[in-house]
């Protein structure tokens, strides 16, 4: 089985409080984009989980793909089945677009089918939150208004613009941003109708700009062309366009020192579409 593993954007990110366990309460709107990694899953008879290629400075046991597979092992119907997983990486790491979380969710969805675990999406999402707060949205597969630590999801239907996505040459530490004493943590909560107007902001933006001059430079450049936004804790920035031509025009002027992509917003995860197609073909 081969599946795409898409990125997401936070169209805004409000931090509304901090819990006693250190996690932050937030409100955000998640939307998928059609920029994807690719994961291939091959069943084996040796009950082992292997992942390739090996990522430098990331032990296999710390890889979210491996953790997701291990999480499902107790639920598989045939205890002898293992899996070889191959990752073709396209999404930049440390970009705030959820690449690792998406890979974990894609692994859960694929192995739930291949290992015949028969878990519902809701159960998979419940399990996945222990691996990461933004994994449930990838598991559920719909654009969503999210609350809590990002796991309380309400399905929404959004416009699907073209986005110019820019990745400055830096890696943003999420931990550093969320522990910064100057981070705003008391943005008043809003209701879904207000959230769907997408006129919110990202509470992490100013802290990220302060710690990362490259993000600040890219933000100021992109802001000259429209309503530039930061996704998650960054480093990626994005700008929405109504048509492809306008997005391509601005991309043509993007400094080559930054990675850049044109992608399309998606209200349904490409993973779910591809998985449903695979299931249909294999049933037929």
Automatic annotation (TrEMBL):
It is an enzyme of class 2 (transferase). ATP binds at residues 92-102. The keyword Nucleotide-binding applies. Residues 63-141 form the GHMP kinase N-terminal domain. Pathway: Isoprenoid biosynthesis; isopentenyl diphosphate biosynthesis via DXP pathway; isopentenyl diphosphate from 1-deoxy-D-xylulose 5-phosphate: step 3/6. Residues 201-253 form the GHMP kinase C-terminal domain. GO terms for biological process: isopentenyl diphosphate biosynthetic process, methylerythritol 4-phosphate pathway; terpenoid biosynthetic process. Transmembrane segments: none annotated. The active site is at residues 8, 134. Its EC number is 2.7.1.148. Keywords: ATP-binding, Isoprene biosynthesis, Kinase, Nucleotide-binding, Transferase. Coiled coil: none annotated. GO terms for molecular function: 4-(cytidine 5'-diphospho)-2-C-methyl-D-erythritol kinase activity; ATP binding. InterPro entries: GHMP_kinase_C_dom, GHMP_kinase_C_sf, GHMP_kinase_N_dom, IspE, Ribosomal_Su5_D2-typ_SF, Ribsml_uS5_D2-typ_fold_subgr. It catalyses: 4-CDP-2-C-methyl-D-erythritol + ATP = 4-CDP-2-C-methyl-D-erythritol 2-phosphate + ADP + H(+). The keyword Kinase applies. Catalyzes the phosphorylation of the position 2 hydroxy group of 4-diphosphocytidyl-2C-methyl-D-erythritol. HAMAP family: IspE. Belongs to the GHMP kinase family. IspE subfamily. This is 4-diphosphocytidyl-2-C-methyl-D-erythritol kinase. It comes from Marinomonas profundimaris.
